[in-house]
Write a structure and sequence with these properties.
With 386 residues, this protein is α+β, with helices and mostly antiparallel strands. Helix content is 32%, strand content 16%.
């Protein structure tokens, strides 16, 4: 993080609160009230240029202190430590992790695999978002599908996307679909079931040319895909048309280009459509970056699925851990954070700088060069050089 970026605890806490919202969340959200405490890297409301460390206290920790005690305990000798998990859940990391790491208690796996770790991602992403905001970049998201029900967003998204989405209990822009989705969630809760869905992340203000085509690991769309798929329970990512592009002809997929005098961040051109979702060749085009992220239903069902008890080898019902009916609205906030982290890295790779003012000057110089190279003299364009 460059020095001089304005940072307050309230900025980060606001993002943490957004992560905890959403109809269909479980009792955990009633226990935790996530707040950060600065440990290093910030003074007088600004970053110092060094590593930034934050502490988020887990209010439920005391209830698990004995169960998760890192020190040996007498009950470990006979394997009787409380709350052991051997009836592994289908769809969770329980079984695969237990076998991979040669453990007997899936508690050793599921606590680390828990989506609780995304709290830290959102906190770090909030800092990246503040850097991006200082460079003219905005990130928002909204829910477009839940439990088999599609939302129909407006043809033109609100300028302040998050303000509009956060006003909805499901972070959707379609109030009619929201009513049906809530009914679907209530029905799933009665059935002891869970639901998945899709959120769309939209980023505006990005300059053309972030990322690269020259090396596979520098392609921005690839980096975004990896970041999104690392979110627990996320199983699919699309940029722009995504899979739909495979079903259309080239004329129906590719975005035609036209002059756009004054559009510095796009190189003074624009796409008539944005089917590519803001990237071409692994680089940003300057058009809005549009990423859709698909989350599967949560693995813990209140009406558990069948499994095997690894302690006995016998068929059993999977363990029931505290869980949500759906966490798709929160996933959208987490996806925003992951996008912010990837894009902040890409911006600093492209422009560098140890202080915010230096980064801003470097961005300004790049945009000035785009202005210069796209300013064509009409006579020269006609072939007159005299």
């Amino acid at each position: 993080m460059p020095a001089g970026v304005p940072l307050t605890a309230a900025d980060v806490d606001a993002e943490l609160a957004r992560r905890q919202q959403g109809y269909g969340r479980g009792r955990r959200m009633q226990i935790e009230r996530d707040r950060i405490e600065w440990l290093s890297g910030v003074r007088a409301g600004e970053s110092l240029g060094g590593p930034i460390a934050m502490l988020i206290r887990n209010q439920d920790w005391a209830n698990w202190a004995a169960i998760m005690d890192p020190a040996p305990r007498p009950e470990d000798a006979d394997g009787s430590r409380a709350r052991q998990v051997t009836r592994v859940r289908p769809g969770h990391a329980d079984l695969t992790g237990l076998l991979k790491y040669d453990r007997r208690d899936a508690r050793d796996i599921l606590e680390r695999a828990s989506a609780r770790e995304t709290t830290a991602r959102v906190a770090a992403g909030a800092l990246a978002r503040l850097l991006l905001r200082a460079l003219g970049v905005r990130i928002g998201s909204h829910l477009v599908h839940l439990g088999g029900i599609d939302a129909v967003p407006p043809a033109e998204l609100p300028v302040d996307l998050n303000a509009a989405a956060d006003a909805s209990s499901l972070r959707t822009l379609d109030p009619v679909a929201e009513t049906r989705m809530i009914e679907r969630i209530d029905a799933a809760k009665r059935d002891g079931n869970t639901l998945g869905g899709i959120c769309e992340v939209v980023v505006t203000g990005l300059p053309v040319g972030l990322g690269s085509h020259v090396s596979w690991d520098r392609r921005l769309d690839g980096r975004l895909g990896q970041a999104m798929l690392s979110i627990p329970a996320v199983k699919g990512v699309e940029i722009g048309l995504g899979f739909e592009a495979a079903r259309r002809t080239g004329a129906e997929v590719h975005d035609e280009i036209e002059p756009a005098p004054g559009a510095s961040r796009m190189g003074h051109v624009r796409r008539r459509t944005n089917r590519a979702g803001g990237t071409e060749g692994g680089m940003t085009t300057g058009e809005p970056l549009v990423v859709r992220v698909a989350m599967k239903p949560i693995s813990t069902l209140m009406r558990p699925l069948t499994t095997v008890d690894l302690a006995t080898g016998a068929p059993a019902e999977a363990v029931v851990e505290r869980s949500d009916v759906t966490a798709v609205p929160a996933m959208g906030v987490i996806a925003e954070a992951m996008a912010a982290l990837v894009l902040a890295d890409a911006l600093l790779e492209k422009f560098g700088g140890d202080a915010l003012g230096e980064v801003q000057r470097n961005v300004g110089g790049y945009l000035a060069r785009l202005d210069e190279r796209m300013a064509v003299d009409p006579l020269e364009a006609d072939g007159h050089t005299g």
